[in-house]
Amino acid sequence: MFRLAALLTLLAGQAAALSCEQFEWQDARFSICHVYPATDDLRLFHSGADGAPLGDFSRIEAETGRKLVFAMNAGMFHNDLRPVGYYLENGEEKMWLVTQAGPGNFGLLPNGVLCIGESTARVIETLAFKAEASDCAYATQSGPMLVIDGALHPRFLASGNSRLIRNGVGTSTDGSEAVFVISDTPVNFHLFASFFRDYLGLPQALYFDGRISRLYAPSLGRSDIGFRMGPMVGVLE
Fold first, then answer.
1. 45-51, long-range: CB within 8 Å, 24+ apart, which pairs?
2. How far is residue 105's CA from residue 98's CA, in Å, rounded to a whole number?
3. Torsion angle of the four alpha carbons 152, 106, 59, 170, in this order, in degrees rounded to the nearest 10
4. CA 129 to CA 125: how far, in whole Å?
5. Rounded to whole angstroms, how far apart are CA atoms 23 and 91?
6. What secondary structure, in 3-state letters, does the chain show?
7. Which is it for the CA torsion 159, 165, 171, 177, positive or negative?
8. pLDDT digit string (tens) for 63-87?
9. Prediction pTM value
10. Structural contact between residues 60 and 232, judged by C-beta atoms closer than 8 angstroms
């Protein structure tokens, strides 16, 4: 019985491992990566041992000495690459939670937090995150929320004419799966959020960015380059 249980556990772990794929939906193209925090080593990355921002995906491997199998920019940042909102890395708080409305997409409330725990990843609306004092090893705040408890952000319009390459993350109800998405064609907020809710069936989703949207996914032949980044999220082999 023990050997059977061990085999089933192994097979379950193999089944729930990072995978990336591409889809077409509503005349738009998307690249998505499914991550399972119980089996995938999902982390946030910002600064190196010297305290300076890493800035790009290649520096993650150099800093950790481990192979990176997936990465994406993960939250808005200032010109000096400091996070705009709450940021927690390996239990160390580097930026406080911002709860008030403000300029730009980040301040378009409600915004939210990606909270990565020991075996879960959850997108949580900012005030709910503050109220429940979530136990996170890593966390990054961004905005706006794309999907809140199954509803699209109330400010999104299907006719919105601002179309960009956008990226974000959605999580399952139990936090066992996080799905990271980047649009491969310019989309508006409404279509991007609808992809999380209506195509992926995720009840919570958070916007990361629309001008600094980049993906590292070797399985898709992707290693996007561009301006230096602040917070990044990734999976180490």
1. 45/71, 45/89, 45/231, 45/232, 45/233, 45/234, 46/81, 46/83, 46/87, 46/89, 46/94, 46/230, 46/231, 46/232, 47/89, 47/94
2. 13
3. -10
4. 6
5. 35
6. CHHHHHHHHHHHHHHCCCEEEEEEECCEEEEEEEECCCCCEEEEECECCCCCECCCHHHHHHHHCCCEEEEEECCCECCCCCECCCEEECCEEEECCCCCCCCCCCCCCCCEEEEECCCCEEEEEHHHHHHHCCCCCEEEEECCEEEECCEECCCCCCCCCCCECCEEEEECCCCCCEEEEEECCCECHHHHHHHHHHHCCCCEEEEEECCCCCEEEHHHCEECCCCCCCCEEEEEC
7. positive
8. 999 999 999 999 999 999 999 999 9
9. 0.93
10. yes
Please name the residue that has the structure tokens 């917070």. 231
C-alpha radius of gyration, the chain, whole number? 17
Q: Which two tokens stand for residue 7?
A: 């085999």
pLDDT digits (tens, 9 = 90+) for 150-168: 999 999 999 999 999 999 9
Hey, what are 67's tokens? 């192979």
